[in-house]
Amino acid sequence: MMKRPSLWSCMKKYLWQYALGLLCLLLVDFLELFIPQLTGSITDGLTAGTITGRILLTDVALIILTAAVVAGMRFGWRVLIFGASRRVERDLREQMYEKLTTLSNRYFQHHKTGDLMAYFTNDMEAIRMAVGPAILTTFDAVILTVMVLTKMILYVDLKLTLLAMIPLLVILFGGRKYGVVMSRRSEKKQAAFAKLSDYVQESVSGIRIIKAFVQEAREMESFEKVNRSTREANLYVVRLRAIVIPILDGLIGLSTALTLLYGGYLVLQGDITIGKFVAFNSYVMTLVWPMMAGGESITMVSQGAASWRRVRSIFDETQEVSDDELTDATIETISGSIELKNLHFRYNENLPEVLRDFSETIPEGATIGVLGRTGCGKSTLSSLLTRMYNVEPGQIYIGGKDIRSIPLKVLRESIACVPQENLLFSDTIQTNIAFGKRTLEKMPPEEKHRFKIFVRQDEAADLVVEKEMEQRESLMDQRWGDYEEVVAAAKAADIHDNIMDFPKQYATVVGERGVTLSGGQKQRTSIARALMKDAEILILDDALSAVDTDTEKRILQELQRLRKGKTTILIAHRISTVQYADKILVMEDGVCAESGSHQELLELDGRYARLYEEQQLELQLQAEKEALHETE
Length: 632
Fold this sequence. Notes:
Shape: elongated
Helix content: 55-70%
Structural class: alpha/beta
Distance between the termini: 66 Å
Number of helices: 23
């Protein structure tokens, strides 16, 4: 199980960068103290007429040299500290993504995509600001304040320094209260941004549905409400800053005014020289940055703390499905036999059972059809076989081994599944089909060359593909499957001819979630992806619902040819999909109501026979309607 990281564990990897960066910052603060002192010495020398041209040039040269060193050191701490914060952000984002990949389907059913995206964007940025600029400004504010105050006391006057510190004390005590309030408001702001992100993501994904139902105006009105809510949450933070920052400026101005009045009085009394008075005012102006930085640091730390609490909630999530004490690490392969023993399952304790006392034996190499109406538990069976959810030990055996004892990697590598929702990645058709065969082994140079030739079949698209290939260079060391394998899988899924009709053929980018393909094309591409995996067990979960009967027939014939000796489970609503299976399970309300071959079930004259008659009647009516349309 993945251990929850802490911010410190992420930061200590780059401790040397932070240390060097803060050392550079310390040198900058130390050197900056000499510029006001040199300026004061020059002023006193010019006033008294004791300074020579040579001394003046030397002092000016020292000021220029100090400024040059300060500039170099500033560049150094920016690279080191800001670079370290970027790396911490990268590491945290990678660990959060890794954590999400381990969470079960149940988690994603209760957390929306847009909300999760907000964690990766807004929250990560706030955390980066807290572990980078906030550390810098806090360290700088504390060190520079101490150094400047020390210099003001030793070089100028103690009483004048104490007077200048009064506003600083007000800022110090007021900052604590400001930080608590800002943290609460920042958390609300981040939650509002997450809600907005989720709404936009969902609306864009469903834009075709919105247009089809002519709901643009209503959606725009709903978006305006969410947007106003986000605006108010942001203004809630901004208003606080709008109040605090002017107060801070006022306190700084008050400090300057007091030092000018009292410092001028001390000059007139002869207690300090004009040069020291000029230097003191320079020091007071130097203190303006730490005072301002203190407020900014509190804001950044407060927002970062609020975001870390949100991010930490992901790491605190329990990994429901994982290898545990029941797992047998010695299992490296499994066969395709399946045995279900009194299987019971419910998605939630408060919900009714989806599967009840379900028992069945599927021998290796058999083709099994699972038929039933919507909600009878067919897809749940698929999810349990791939262990997307846990079942009690002793209820499912695969290859003669309890599913809870099989390592997840071994189990899922042995099963190829085409789910009801045919999701394709925004990538080329080639990479989508070969997705299941992708490994991290090095691709030989000659294969890289062949891959490049393969994705450049269309000369007109050469420049576009060339650009895409340059962007993918880091992925070229992953094996995506041979050209012949990809084409063979596409032909078996009856999608090859469609692909060859596209301008870029297999190099065609299908768009987000495969949006550029039709429903039938997406299904067949998903089937090709599963076939290319060539797993011991293949599960097609209503994967032929969007194709016509002729295409379905051709795909089923290819499955019979390719899947000899391997287990295939066909989950469907249509009898035409399962009628040639070795055995058909008819499910109803979570139990197996009937089982047998197509002919046996027809002779039984039960649910299957009635469903067969209904579907035959539908096909007959559809044929008559098409014939009538042709005659017209």
